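Internal QA ticket QA-208
Title: Verify multi-chain structure generation after dependency bump
Assignee: T.L.

Test input:
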Amino acid sequence: MVKKRKSAASNFSVSLGSLKLPNPVLAASGTFGSGRDYEDLVPLKKLGALVTKTITLKPQSGNPPPRTAETYQGMLNAIGLENPGVEAFIRKEMPFLQKIGIPVIVSVAADSPAQFARICRRLSKIRGIHALEVNISCPNLGKRTLIAQDARATYEVVKAAKRATGVPIITKLSPNVTDVAEIAHAAERAGSDILSLVNTFFGMSVDLKTKQPKLGNATGGLSGPAIKPQALWAVYRVRQAVKLPLIGMGGIMDTQDALEFIICGASAVAVGTANFVNPKAIVEIITGIRKYLQKNKIRDINSLIGSLGKK
Amino acid sequence: MSEMPEIIQGKFKVLSNRKMEPDCFKMAILAPRIAITARPGQFVHLRCQEELEPLLRRPFSFHRINGGSFEILYKVIGRGTNLLAKKKKGDTIDTLGPLGNGFNIIRNSKFEIRNSILVAGGMGVAPLLALGERLAGRRNTLVLIGARNKKEVLCENEFKQLGAKVQIATDDGSRGRKGLVTDLLKKVLRNTKYEIRNTIYACGPKPMLKEIARLSSSLGISAYGSLEENMACGVGACLGCAIGTREGYKRVCKDGPVFNLREIKW
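Actual output:
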C-alpha cells in the first residue's frame, strides 16, 4: 500500500549539535518527575524530550515544607533537589524512561567538579540517555554563591563533566547574575555542547500573620509567567554572545511564548510551571507551533530559530 | 494492589454552585469519568479561571460522590475561591482528578467494617461526608463536628440522614459542648463502647490532627487523617507538597492526602 504524504508538513525536528530532537518542545527539569506521574494525562511519546528531576550521587531528602508558595503570575519553590540518588534513579526510573522512546535528558547536580564528573561518568554508561543537563543553578541549596554565578567555577564543573562523558553536556544557567553572557562564555570555553536558560530567579514571600517566610527554606526560586520577559531577555543576550545551541525556558505558558524564545535564538524550549496549570501545555504548544509554521508557510522550524528582526 | 484508576483532565459542567452558611459554597460538577472511580478522601485539582492569575490550581476533596457527578464544599478565603464562587450553573470548569490515595476503610475481617469515629474540624467535614456515605448502614458511625460557632457547624443534618450519631463542639459554646472537638473525642474515647475496635477518620486544622495522633496512639486506636500542604502539580511530579513522616518526606498529593496520623512528624 502506498501511503499518501502530506506535502504541506513542515520539518519539525531540530539538532542541537549532536542532540537530535523530533520537535523543539521539552518538559523542563523538576516539573515532570520522570514522566510517570503524567502518563495518564500526556501522550509522553509526543514530547520533544524529557528532562528529569535533578539527580545527585547520594539520595537527598530536600527542604522542609512548605516548599511552594503562589505569587502574582508565578510561584516560588524550594524543593531542595529531593531525589533518590543516582543508583536508585537508574534502577527505578530508567526502565520507564527508556520505554517511552523519546530523547531523555538527565539533570544532574553535585558539589564539586570531581563529583560532577563521577555522576556524569556513571550515567554515561546507561542506555537511553541522550544528554546530561548540568544543573549549576539551583537556588535552593543554602549555598552563598551558585556555581552558575561564578565563571571560573562554571568552567571547572563543565570541563570536568565533559572529560567524564561522551554524552552531550547541557549547562543550565542562572538568571541571578550580573551578566549571564559571561557565564555562558565560560561554559562554552569549557566545552559545553548546549546551554539551557534560565533556571528560577531568587525570590521570597512573607506571611504577615506569623512574620515568617512562606517557604520552609525562607527563600526560593520564582517561576511562571511573571519571569518570562526577563528569561527571554537572557536568551536574547546569550544568543548574541555565544555560538552554542540554546534551550530557552522561563515562564513559557503557550505557543506565543514558545515562539518568542525560538525567534530570539533558542533552538528548543522547555516548559515547566505551565505543566502544573495545564498538564497538556506541552502537547498544545507542539500543536500550536505546527499550526503557526503551516499558516505562515514556513517549511522548516530551523529557519525560525534566531529570526528576530528578519522578514 | 489493584491498578490505580486513570487520572482525567477535562472541562466539565457546573451543575450548581450554592452559597451555604457562612462564606461557604457547595459546587456540583457533572463529570462521569471522574465520579465513577472517585473514592472518599481523594480530591480534584480545579483551575478557578481561564487566565493566568491566580496561576495555580486549587485542590478540593470529594464532598459527595453521586454516580455521574460529585460535589465539593469550599470556603471563600482567597483569590481562587473568590473566582470559584462566581461560577454559575452551566459554566465549565477545568478539572483534574481523581487524585490521591483516599480513605482506606478498615475491616476487622473480610466482611466486617469497624465502627468509625469521624472527627471534623471546620471545613474538615468536606471529605468526611463522602466517607460517611460509604460507611452508612454498615456499622456504627459517630461523627464529631467542631466549629468556631453554631453558624459554622456544617453537614450535621446530612450525617444524621445517613444514620450516624452526631456530637458537636463549638469554641464559643453556641452549639453543643463548649471547647475543642478533640476534648469531645477524649470524652468519647473514655467510654468503653468506643475502643480499639474503632477507627478514627479525621480532617481539620493541623493542631487538631496532631492531638488526635497523640490520643489515638496512646490508646492504640488507628487514626487516619486527610492533610493539606501548598500544592502545585497535584499528581506527584513536583515534590512541592512534601510532608515530614517517619519514613522521610512524602507527597500529600500522591502518597496522601490521607495518612496514618502516627506516621506524621508533627
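Spot checks passed. The radius of gyration of chain A is 19 Å.
Status: verified.
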